[in-house]
Amino acid sequence: MKLGKYIKWFKRLIEKEKEAEIEIMKKEIKTLPGKEREKLGRAILNLKGKIVGREFAFKIVKYGREKEIQTEISVGDLVLISKGNPLRSNLVGVVTEKGKRYLCVALENVPIWALNDIRIDLFANDVTF
Does the pLDDT at position 77 exceed 70? Predict the structure, then answer.
């Protein structure tokens, strides 16, 4: 197999793996309440957001709360930003920074609703891909 063909084949496999991981997370979001996912470290509830800067074509939003955040979500992860039912949201970003009480997320656009009483769900570890 030629190198170019191998690279294309391998890229397709990686994309399929990413899609499968996202489907697993969607099923978990559908079956587990937000508080349960937060206990597992795969969601963060009751966040407020503030646009704190820009990087390339992305706006950086700092999401935080007073209560310390215990989560598996880390820098490089793909996250779903939502208000209400997370499966109805299509606002996806990448975590760029993590602190004890906040996460910074890079987003292409930031609707007004995405800045108050927000839920963040782990969607996929994008660094792997």
Answer: yes
Domain that holds residue 88: 3-125
Rounded Cα distance, 44 and 102, in Å: 10
DSSP 68: P
Summarize pLDDT for 12-29 with one digit per residue, the tens: 988 888 888 888 888 999
What size, in residues, is the chain? 129
**CATH code of the domain covering residue 45:** 2.40.30.270
Instruction: Average the pLDDT over 40-68 and give the result.
Output: 96
How many domains is the chain built from?
Answer: 1
What are 101's two structure tokens?
Answer: 């009480």
Neighbouring C-alpha atoms within 13 Å toward the C-beta of 83:
12
Its pTM stands at 0.85
Q: What is the pLDDT of residue 126?
A: 62
Name the residue among 66, 78, 76 with its Cα closest to residue 102: 66
Q: Which two tokens stand for residue 89?
A: 């949201």
CB atoms under 10 Å from CB of 61, counted, come to 23
